Amino acid sequence: MDTWKLWAICMTLAAHLPEEQALRQACLSCHDTQSCNCSSMGLDFIPSGLTSKITVLNLAHNRIKLIRAHDLQQAVNLRALLLQSNQISSIDEDSFGSQGKLELLDLSNNSLAHLSPVWFAPLFSLQHLRIQGNSYSDLGESSPFSSLRNLSSLHLGNPQFSIIRQGNFEGIKFLHTLKIDGGNLSQYEPGSLKSIRKINHMIISIRRIDVFSAVVRDLLHSAIWLDVRKLAFSVPEKIQLLRIMSSSFTKKISLKQCLFTDATVPGIVSILEGMPKLMEVEMKDCTLLGTGQWYKQIHANQSQSLRVLIIENLSIEEFYLFTDLQSVLDLLSLFRKVTVENTKVFLVPCKLSQQLLSLEYLDLSANLLGDQSLEHSACQGAWPSLQTLNLSQNSLSDLKMTGKSLFHLRNLNLLDISENNFGEIPDVCEWPENLKYLNLSSTQIPKLTTCIPSTLEVLDVSANNLQDFGLQLPFLKELYLTKNHLKTLPEAAAIPNLVAMSISRNKLNSFSKEEFESFKQMELLDASSNNFICSCEFLSFIHHEAGIAQVLVGWPENYICDSPLAVRGAQVESVRLSLMECHRSLLVSLICTLVFLFILILVVVGYKYHAVWYMRMTWAWLQAKRKPKRAPAKDICYDAFVSYSENDSNWVENIMVQQLEQACPPFRLCLHKRDFVPGKWIVDNIIDSIEKSHKTLFVLSEHFVQSEWCKYELDFSHFRLFDENNDAAILILLEPIQSQAIPKRFCKLRKIMNTKTYLEWPPDEEQQQMFWENLKAALKF
């Protein structure tokens, strides 16, 4: 009995040895490097052989189901352990006993049905813990995190997560980020989060307002940034539950993927403006069901701190019916920064613009503003303090009208009107007097005129159709001309104070000394991805003569040129230039010559080794193979198809044909001269004739083996007839043939002559009668 037990143990161990060896091979890098990436390798267990050298272990996206006590025992210096997206459902109590230095543990998206404080007890250095996406419904009766004194970020929750109890977060005093996925959270015991004194960023996905209200009550003095997701503010009566937020010290509130209605907006706004320290409100990917018909005026009573409003991707189905927002005018005077991006804004009411007295930054990008609506939105008295305006990706088309609409904004110094469709621009425009930065990139302008204000310090006209740059801009310091069609540099004398210029992805060929004479202030030049004809002297000139400190030319590192030139902002001892960049024409000519020689060699080799012949033969062979092997009896028209060389036609046509076709009974022969179908491809004629004949006569001679078409006929006869193991081929040796005279491609002829009996034409007339008798007998058989 003991013998059987010993045998069973040995068999079990033997079965596991190949598995462990495979795991070691899969994560071979784990033994030699500090970072071990074993993700997406189909592993069922944590690989063995982990050493103390490893500091980062990535086992994500495998099939690991359990963590055993000995799996990580030797990896005592682990700083990061990534186990997300496995099938982990069980963890031994002492699995992390050796990981006292672990700082990041990711167990997200597994199958853990409960959490044990024992797992995390040894992890006193842990800073980041991710356990979301498992199957636990609660965090237990006590806190699983009580020993994690250094925890900085915690991400928990899942679709089954339904209850948070008092004491679940005991031991945590400070968190930089706390994220709770509580879409189905239905019960929250008051005081559960109160033990955490400070949370810089509180992220919570939740659906029930009453539960959210209970959470907020515990975060009144601890949450600096409250990030709420997937909450529907649709019932006005429930909004009253959030009145407690008016006492919150939160400085920033983000509302993402939330739902609002006309009936609930006033209550929410009233709560927000009552928060004493609130500085910023952010709304992203939200939905508003309504048209702004709010049932009461909203007054700003308490909040003197709110300065920033960010609205991105707000969906308003009936945006074209939206009101002029008269009810919120009193809230707007203190805003300094407003972003309303990708929200289908087609007009900002004049009264609303005039109310934004403190506004310094306005972003209305990716909306529907046109020339007329901009004129109304930027009416007299609108945005008096505005310094930065972003109108990119709108529907503006008249540059002159755009400048005129904004002319009265005397404090405006930065204007972004990129990705509009201006096309042609006029010669004269009006602009705000203090405008310093203008972005006209991707606006379809074919040329630049004096419409561009001369006060600019920064001009971006990238991605247009510019052929040249001839503007006089005496104050310009930065110029962006990327992705145009320029063939020469701008005149340096026209922009004497230029410090940085980007002219990459144009059609520049070279720089001349004259073009650089006035670029004494230049510190950075990006001229990569052009058509330079370069040289070492050229680079030395740029550095020594022009004095430019940093040049980005974008040449690959093949050709070396000694020059203390700064490339990509880093000072180097040599600049490496490719042969392609330096000798483009010569290289293209060389490539063309090599291609021509290669084709010529292919032609010569093909001719010498009959490549064309083999190609044609292959095509004919494929065609023949697709046909039935044996033609029906009713389609047989000839007793024999005669294959012979044209040089032997006298003997065939005047002697053999006479003997056979005038015999009694006569034989019907198929001759290519007489019986081939005119206009039909000769290969098809050969194949059809062989198929419609009982036999195939081969008249062999020195001329036969030199004939290409005889070779075709021999091959077709071979695989159409001999492969059927019959005697359909009859060989007539008209004259003796030396074996060395038969070309190598006639390998089938050699085989046939070695395996089949053939008839030899006798020169003696007395023996010729016997020859004819034997031939007729062969044809009848």
UniProtKB/TrEMBL annotation:
The chain crosses the membrane at residues 586-607. Keywords: Disulfide bond, Glycoprotein, Immunity, Inflammatory response, Innate immunity, Leucine-rich repeat, Membrane, NAD, Receptor, Repeat, Signal, Transmembrane, Transmembrane helix. SMART domains: LRR_TYP, LRRCT, TIR. SUPFAM superfamilies: L domain-like, Toll/Interleukin receptor TIR domain. Coiled coil: none annotated. It holds the Pfam family TIR. Binds MYD88 (via TIR domain). This is Toll-like receptor 2. It comes from Pavo cristatus.
